[in-house]
């Protein structure tokens, strides 16, 4: 059974949390200079440690709602999200039923992803409640126009009207947009978590990070196998994934935290299925950097996949 902290943490742990929050604010200063105050991590310094952990998990819950909605819609299982976290609007391409998968392997993996992500949503809700917190309601999600905007921006306007539910390959590209961001988001938020006991919040968050890493690696592997196929005129799978990675890098602010599935300069064998820094360590993103990507605009307070913004203290 998952163990979570419910008691009031002693002063040293609270002091450690305040220092962590202030430290992360300092690291993020360059990123947020164009939009001061949007990071809102300072509000965490006055909370007891379990309250901070609940706030961090609520930030993650926004992303899990997004991923669950995407994969459940792709597999025709969106009804499983009905009533979970409320019934906020989920915007989908007109006439969507499910991806008409041609590959049984891709279909099966999509269903596995859907099952994992709805499980993450329910697990985070239960854990936040056990911490004495209130799980956020599911925000309004855009799985239609946001993809059109992201694909157009990433391709320099060469890809118009992108629909990730159209076929297997487009579905994999849609998943690619999310999965690497999820890995870096969990790693970037980990220093904020107080409950580092065996079976505590940090261990459980690390477990979700590992699952997101498996997801990302599998998606990148499937795309690498099809790297030379054309997605649009003159654009191969390798070129499109590189463009998406470059777009994420541009959106999240200064510093390189992303790479495509082929990197001949970085990798002697060209394949770059595992996204890492030069030390083979996964990248971190602070909440503001994650929001820059999912809002599709640096410094924005809403937009992209979250038309009305995310919910919770960290936004």
Description:
- The chain has 315 residues and is mainly α.
- The chain has one domain (11-294).
- Helices cover 49% and strands 3% of the residues.
- The chain has helices spanning 11-27, 29-32, 49-74, 104-130, 145-154, 168-189, 201-225, 237-252, 287-294; strands spanning 90-91, 141-142, 230-232, 235-236.
- It has a two-stranded parallel sheet with strand order 1-2.
- Helix 4 links the parallel strand 1 (90-91) and strand 2 (141-142).
- It is globular, with a radius of gyration of 19 Å.
- Residues 1-38 have low confidence and may be disordered.
Give a short summary of the structure:
The chain is mainly α and 315 residues long. Helices cover 49% and strands 3% of the residues. It is built from nine helices and four strands.
Q: Which spans of ≥5 residues are poorly predicted at pLDDT below 50?
A: 1-38
Largest sheet: number of strands, sense, barrel closure: 2 strands, parallel
In sequence order, what are the helices and strands, one letter per element? HHHEHEHHHEEHH
Radius of gyration from the CA trace? 19 Å
Q: How many helices does DSSP assign?
A: 9
What is the helical fraction, as a range of percent? 40-55%
Structural class: mainly alpha
What best-fitting shape do the alpha-carbon axes yield?
Answer: globular
Q: How many discrete structural domains?
A: 1
Q: Order of strands side by side in the largest beta sheet?
A: 1-2
Mean pLDDT: 87
Ends apart, CA distance between termini: 31 Å
Report strand %: under 5%
